[in-house]
Amino acid sequence: MAKEQEEADDTRERLLNAAIEQFAERGFYGASIAQIAGELDLTKQALLYYFRRKEDLYSEVLRRIADRMLNAMRSAAKRDDTPQKQFEDMMLALYEEAKDYRPGTSILMRELLDNQRSLAPEETWYFRPFLNELVAQLDRVEALEAQPFSHKLARVYQLMSSIEYFAASTQVIERMYSADELAQVLEVYPTILTQQIRQVFEQGKA
């Protein structure tokens, strides 16, 4: 029984990995259950044994991406640092996650920009707790604590847009210029991002 459960867990994990690649490439509506199952030489019916609907599979993919992002930024924040330094390190960690995990970045961009599941139930809005946690971190910054939620959410979105768009565009930069040029851009981008983050704090003082 334990072996059967282990095999079932392994199949479920491989299905999720295949689904992430398909959703990243084709989006929610472009990817199909048959394509995802075919990646593992399974039938559509076999995939539906693990996930009853494509919506359930996509929802689990989003949850995993959101969890990865939450874990990355939480791990980066040192307890003894100032709130400003913690926020800065959290955003830089999110950049590294976005750069190193391209399928997740592509899916996040599609989800936030294309509104792929406009009728999705609120309990599957997995990126909202993630955004709320970043806003809550800005609540701890003295220069920003008195600002309304909407102002801080806008600042978070500004930074996230920069991070996700850049991370999703690295292959385009390489194709238009060269691998060497991309390497130099990747080297300087964290410095530029840090400057953008610190501008948020300076703007709060104004």
The helix/strand class is: mainly alpha
Report how far the terminal alpha carbons are from each other. Answer: 64 Å
**How big a fraction of the residues is strand?**
under 5%
Number of strands: 0
Could you list the spans in which at least 5 consecutive residues all have pLDDT below 50?
Answer: none
* Inertia-based shape: globular
Fold and architecture overview:
The structure is a single chain. The protein has helices at 2-30, 33-38, 44-50, 54-76, 83-100, 102-114, 127-139, 149-176, 179-205. It starts with a helix and ends with a helix. With 206 residues, the protein is mainly alpha-helical. It has nine helices and no strands. The longest helix is centred in the first third of the chain and has 29 residues, at 2-30. Helix 1 (2-30) crosses helix 4, helix 5 runs parallel beside helix 8 and helix 8 runs antiparallel to helix 9 (179-205). It is globular.
What topology emerges from the helices and strands here?
Elements: H1 2-30, H2 33-38, H3 44-50, H4 54-76, H5 83-100, H6 102-114, H7 127-139, H8 149-176, H9 179-205
